[in-house]
Amino acid sequence: xxxxxxxxxxxxxxxxxxxxxxxxxxxxxxxxxxxxxxxxxxxxxxxxxxxxxxxxxxxxxxxxxxxxxxxxxxxxxxxxxxxxxxxxxxxxxxxxxxxxxxxxxxxxxxxxxxxxxxxxxxxxxxxxxxxxxxxxxxxxxxxxxxxxxxxxxxxxxxxxxxxxxxxxxxxxxxxxxxxxxxxxxxxxxxxxxxxxxxxxxxxxxxxxxxxxxxxxxxxxxxxxxxxxxxxxxxxxxxxxxxxxxxxxxxxxxxxxxxxxxxxxxxxxxxxxxxxxxxxxxxxxxxxxxxxxxxxxxxxxx
Length: 301
What we know:
Blueprint: H1 3-17, H2 21-36, H3 49-56, E1 65-67, H4 68-74, H5 83-93, E2 97-99, E3 103-106, H6 108-115, H7 119-132, H8 134-142, E4 148-150, H9 151-160, H10 168-181, E5 195-197, H11 211-216, E6 223-225, H12 228-238, E7 247-252, E8 256-262, E9 265-271, E10 274-278, H13 283-296
């Protein structure tokens, strides 16, 4: 056999050897669907959060970038087509990479998730990535936290609201596995369970609080992560949009409630504090600008 043919054969064998389990599982699911004549319905994310993290880890930690073709080959695809595009879309949906015409680049969130200084920081980043994907976030938001929630209710939400009809089992499996990996699910991720129990996405401690202090707080006293896709509107209302690339935003689980009754109406006012943590290398300059921005929106400082 000519050398070129041998090399080609070895390349193909290597490609087959590194195909991920998720590819094999998805192929089986899709083959079964085609044989039974079912349609897939609304499409959803191709990878779980854990699989997406493993894929992102193939990109160099220091350069934080890789050519699209090399990244495809690193994930077991000779060319950046077909299933690779679904994987890349999943990584983008979790905000772990950004792709241009030639390269794939790790985002700041991916760097924090992969190489954060503590396990707590890496877990928080996983929670942010989980909440960045819109269908996971919508499903998570609809479930109460710190209490049992019937899986039949989750299944109904996925079918009726998200319009995922025929592939609900696959979606729920990926949702639960990703929630567990992000630290947002108690117990094992079992889509056949009668009930699940989700945790709130607790924000980073401040003012010297330890992780133990945070866990010991009552749920209503905890600060929870605001989904990354919702941060923009919160910052805009505060006049702090300019700091979006270097801040974390959280909200207290509960707040003060005032009820007024007058003129045949009941008015409920909810005051739920929002916290914005801005990374800075120039404390005095930033605090002056921040005060001006808040004042421009009518806040008293």
